[in-house]
Amino acid sequence: MIEEIEEERLNKNISLPAYHFIESELLFDQRKNFYDDKIILHHFLHEGRLTNQQITYILERSVKVLKKEKNLLEIITPAHVIGDIHGQFFDLYELLKNFNLQKDTLIFLGDYVDRGVFSLEVYVYLLVLKVNYPDNIFLLRGNHECFSLTSYFTFQEEVKFKHNLEIYNKLGESFYYLPLAAVILKKAFCVHGGISPHLKDLKDIDKIDRFKEIPYEGLMCDLLWSDPAQNFNLSKKKFEFNTKRRVSYVYYFEAVKEFLEKNDLETIIRGHEVEKMGYKLFKCYKTEVPSVYTVFSAPNYCDMYNNLGSTLFFDGNDYELKTYEWVNHPYVSKNYIDVISQTFSFVSEKVAEFYLDLLKYLEEINTTSSTLSKEESTISFTQKSYTEDEIKNEIEFVKQFNKSMIIMREERENSDEIELKEEPLSTNKCKTIKETHSDFEKVKENDLINEEKIDKKIEEKALSLEISPSMINKKSKEIQSVGLEKALDKCKIEIKNDKLNLELKKE
Fold first, then answer.
1. If 0-12 CB within 10 Å is exposed, 13-18 middle and 19+ buried, where does residue 400 land?
2. Within a 13 Å sphere around the CA of 196, how many CA atoms are in the beta-carbon half?
3. Same domain for 104 and 214?
4. 42 is catalytic
């Protein structure tokens, strides 16, 4: 059967996804006493999946390893630091080609999941590496490694599609065991977000109870959510509320300087923010070493930013940055829906247009026959008679149906594009700014709302920038979650100032 499908493929240069599971016995490496990371990597690169039992086993083994680690890791060898990955598995694969996974020390700064469509593969593969190479692979926690964000962005939907909700919950619980920070060779402090007014001494980090959801305030929150201030070195301030994130703080050079001096460090290496070149350097402290490095390792973030990714190597004396371009990845349909469902609105729209033309033709015939007697004023068509009022009602219904199909089609076509943040959300907001996709700053500006801490108050405001089941409007989700007939019954469609507006009637 698979051979027949392979033979019928129009583009034979693109390999068929791996539909098969691999037996656990074949995955197992006796020397490592665990699954072979090379086999899993090869399987994931061909879009293969593991069984629920295999995922569970990986989580159980990795949690045992992570649980033994302290909140603050002390790295005593030269190390490569890797920033946010955000579900970009194929970019991660290209990046890791540059390292010897068995020998090189790699520190990941967190944010393995959400936004990209291969978050599961990224996180599971890194856990497998952690179990196989526990002494040189280190995984820190990012602000996206929590239930509140992954249930709101893309990770939950991805895992539910590929496995089930139970597996998602197990994955979410494993986030609790990820360490919070690391120090390389007693000089470089590595963390996802940054420092905190609550952080006086490095020992404070080990006092945190990390085995829980990320709180909305306090030291643990700040380590994962804080940012350098925009005017980092132009103020004598130390900390201010982080208005961009709506949680935690922004920190200034004075705060960083005080932290580095007190803990005998020379720099902070963090991720958390996309940068056009993949990195950003901040004002130097004492030596020529920047006081803060931002390292972001997801090139062309969200398939939208056109940014580079980067990694940072520190050997105890020198800091070496290396940048990476993005690679192509397999296409994933919006919301993981099948092609038939994805094209339904387009096909329905065309059928409705044909039917509408037919009804208008009948109406014209009916108008020309208005001189006939009342008994003769019905039109016979395929053994069914239509009165003038029936035809008009049918035309109005089909118009309404057609408009809703146009809206659904446009939303699916544009769900990977940015909507202007000042516009209110509604299902007809399909206006896009395609011409700015190459403009990094414009894309970043319009994506700011997705950088906020998610809570119930702001949950309704989030906009879409994802390429797959991501942040499409909740009204659109509601339309898709019910049958078409029910959806149309709930729809109120009106035209104001030449703009189409669709609202759902509340029950």
1. middle
2. 21
3. yes
4. no
Which residue in the list 43, 144, 163, 329 is annotated as catalytic? 144
- Separation of alpha carbons 374 and 20, rounded Å: 68
Residue 279 in domain: yes
Residue 479: which of 409, 396, 394, 383 has the closest Cα? Answer: 409
Q: What percent of the chain has pLDDT over 70?
A: 69
Reported as a pLDDT band with limits 50, 70 and 90, residue 443 is confident
Q: Are residues 37 and 172 in the same domain?
A: yes
* DSSP secondary structure, 224-279, as one string: HH-EE-TTTTS-S--EEE-TTTTSSEEE-HHHHHHHHHHTT--EEEE-SS--TTSE
Terminal Cα-to-Cα distance of the chain (whole angstroms): 48
Q: Closest Cα partner for 290 from 310, 334, 260, 248?
A: 260
- Indicate if the pLDDT at residue 355 is higher than 90: no
**Counted domains in the chain:** 2
Cβ contacts of 358 within 8 Å, gap of 6 or more: none
Angle at CA 180, nearest 5°, toward 305 and 238? Answer: 75
Q: What is the pLDDT of residues 234-250, one digit of tens each?
A: 888 999 999 999 999 99
Give the pTM.
Answer: 0.75
Cβ-contact 159, 238 below 8 angstroms: no
Q: Annotate 97-137 with DSSP letters as a single string.
A: TTS-TTTS-EEE-S--SSSSTTHHHHHHHHHHHHHHSTTTE
Q: Are residues 320 and 345 in the same domain?
A: no
Whether residues 50 and 82 share a domain: the answer is: yes
14-20 contacts, C-beta under 8 A, 24 or more apart: 15/46, 17/46, 17/47, 17/48, 17/330, 18/43, 18/46, 18/47, 18/48, 18/49, 19/48, 20/48
Whole-angstrom Cα distance, residue 297 to residue 81? Answer: 9
Residue 189: pLDDT band with limits 50, 70, 90? very high
